[in-house]
Each structure stands twice: as C-alpha cells, then as structure tokens.
Amino acid sequence: KLAEFATRFTGSADLFDRRGRRPWASVNFITAHDGFTLRDLVSYNEKHNIANGEDNRDGSSNDGSCNYGEEGDTDNAEVLQIRERQMKNLLATLLLSQGTPMMLAGDERAQSQGGNNNTYCQDNEITWLDWENDP
C-alpha cells in the first residue's frame, strides 16, 4: 500500500507519463461538487440525501468515507479530534502531492452538507457557504 501511495503522491507516472506529460498535468482532489464535502467524508459512513426527495436513492453509496465511531455531528471529543486530524492529513496530502490541487469550496472551512452527497437540487443552507462564522 505504501508503494501505491508513493506512486500516486509523486504524480502517477505509470498512468500519465505519456508523450512527456509532467506531474502537474494531473489534477488531484479529495472532494468535488459530486459527493461528500471533506468534513462529511470524515463524519458519515452513509449518505443522507432525504432532502433531495428521492428517498435517499440518489447519489453514490460508495464514497470511501469513515465516521470514526459516530454518524454525523457529535460532541464526542475523541471522535472530533480524530476527524480534525484526518481532514488535516487529507489536505496535507493533497497540497504536497505533485500535480495541480483542486479543492471544493468550503473544505478550507470544514463546511458540511449534513451528509448529503448529491446536492444538485439544494439551493439553500445545505450548499450555501457560510462566511460569517468561524469554522
């Protein structure tokens, strides 16, 4: 696993080193507009898309997420500490990897969409960025 990580971390030459392409030709990301936010990636094991009106059938059921013992928001200090550390680990990996980093707006502030990983129809507080409150 470490060798695979090292290969990806250094630009995935096995996949992209064709016709002289350099590592910065790849775009690296953890989260995007489709799927969980960074905070939700470390807070939910399951999608929570009820607000979309499709009986939670929409969106991916395989986001590679982990809630570290409690689903969603919690007051458990241990779980919160692990989640914060994991978000920092993921962001550090993204920013230090060779290639062009792409970040989802709001991930820098630990924005949550309440576990909704398919917010295409949410023009409300679920997707709006809250710039008033500190994360």
Described by its quaternary structure, the protein is single chain
* Spatial order of the strands forming the largest sheet: 1-2
How many DSSP helices?
Answer: 4
How far the N terminus sits from the C terminus, by CA atoms, comes to: 33 Å
Structural class: mainly alpha
Bin the helical content. 25-40%
What string gives the helices and strands in order?
A: HHEHHE
Rounded mean pLDDT is: 93
From the spread of the alpha carbons, the general shape counts as globular
Biggest pleated-sheet summary: 2 strands, parallel
Stretches with pLDDT under 50, minimum 5 residues? none
Q: What fraction of residues sit in β-strands?
A: under 5%
Number of strands: 2
Number of domains: 1
**What is the CA-based Rg, rounded?**
16 Å
GO molecular function: hydrolase activity, acting on glycosyl bonds
InterPro entries: GH (IPR017853)
Protein name: Glycogen debranching enzyme GlgX
Keywords: Glycosidase, Hydrolase
Structure description:
This is Glycogen debranching enzyme GlgX. The structure is a single chain. The chain has a two-stranded parallel ribbon with strand order 1-2. Helix content is 27%, strand content 4%. By secondary structure, it is mostly helical. The chain has four helices and two strands; from the N terminus they run ααβααβ. The chain starts with a helix and ends in a 33-residue tail after the last strand. The protein has one domain. The longest helix is centred in the middle third of the chain and has 20 residues.
SSE arrangement:
Elements: H1 2-9, H2 13-16, E1 27-29, H3 38-41, H4 77-96, E2 100-102
Parallel strand pairs: 1-2
GO molecular function: hydrolase activity, acting on glycosyl bonds
Protein name: Glycogen debranching enzyme GlgX
Region (Disordered): 50-76
